[in-house]
Amino acid sequence: DIPKEQWAQVIEKTGGPVEYKKIPVQQPGPDEVLVNIKYSGVCHTDLHAVNGDWPLPTKLPLVGGHEGAGVVVAKGNLVEDIQIGDHAGVKWINGTCLQCDFCQQSDEPLCPKALLSGYTVDGSFQQYCIAKAAHVARIPKDVPLDAVSPVLCAGITVYKGLKESGARPGQTVAIVGAGGGLGSLAQQYAKAMGLQIIAIDTGDEKKKMCEELGSRAFVDFAKSQNVVKDVQAATEDGLGPHAVILVAVAEKPFQQAAEYVRPRGTVICIGLPAGAKLSAPVFESVIKMVCIRGSYVGNRKDTAEALEFFRRGVIKSPFKVIGLSELQKVYDMMHQGQIAGRYVVDTSK
Ligand code: 8ID
Ligand code: ZN
């Protein structure tokens, strides 16, 4: 039975705080499903949304969240390929037009009409969440819903970013922000793809976690006298990593990566620190033939592939479960940079 009311965390105004309260359960439209969210990962994007960090406005009031894993409990009459009782994931891309140039070429995140979960439409920090059936992630039934939830944004995004980097098995990738949610999953995907990892972040807890996740070296950006030199020194021949995956929420690393990346190397920008600018020295970028590119979540196929890695058991990333009612605490810890790995909220608490 679907209740009329449910618990949710609602942002009434930009800047927050989030308010834990009861709101009505919505009905899915003809091409939509209603997912009973069991667990939802908390992404730094959710905090950017609370704080109004980006040049794109959110809806208000807003229910955040876009790593929602749960069970389909209702569907519109046009929905045929997903059934009530199936496990599904509400991800950042809630829906797209499926018609434009980008959708036709499976670059759905670039669709100008994309609906964004927990940003332009209500997301997964509620017990019942709506998403377009075409876009909900199909989660196999043998996969635990708490552990899989971070894959729905963090996992898909870093998997896509690693593919976009072109790094090949045996090569070295630097992961900047390795101790956070995206960074911890990036290490697991990189390892599964046969890459060697240099983790960059700060603090002993994150260092230990990165070593356990499979990184070969750890550079503490707060302790290092010269991050560029230390990252290069951590590669076997001292020439720098073949690829850099930038998932830090700070501007500085976006201005260092082109300096330490290997000649012919690729810098993948994923993190979205407020108001930050990319910069790189023209001379070195040219004579090293450096490639710098952005990478934005992933398409439906990337989603299925990222989930399949997880289902096979090769992606094991640390997460802590906390009640949905305690979301503000997670934001406070995230703001302080205190979270190693990911927090996942349990919507029943
Ligand atoms: O599709 C996309 N491009 C996409 C998808 C999902 C998330 C982008 N994001 C963005 C988020 O909006 C956010 O800006 O990726 C960023 C990282 O999200 P997250 O992994 O959820 O954030 P986190 O768990 O807080 O981890 C950030 C880590 O960066 C470290 C912190 O210590 C933390 O562990 N960090 C910082 I702040 N400065 C650093 C520095 N100078 C740094 N690590 C290395 N060097
Ligand atoms: Zn996210």
TrEMBL record:
Pfam families named in the record: ADH_N, ADH_zinc_N
Keyword Hydrolase included in the entry's annotation: no
EC number: 1.1.1.1
Cofactor(s) annotated in UniProt: Zn(2+)
A GO term, aspect molecular function: alcohol dehydrogenase (NAD+) activity
Name the record gives this protein: alcohol dehydrogenase
Gene Ontology CC annotation, any one: cytoplasm
Enzyme category, top tier: oxidoreductase
Keywords, in A-Z order: Metal-binding, NAD, Oxidoreductase, Zinc
Residue ranges of domain Enoyl reductase (ER) in the record: 15-345
Family from the record: Belongs to the zinc-containing alcohol dehydrogenase family.
Organism of provenance: Viridothelium virens
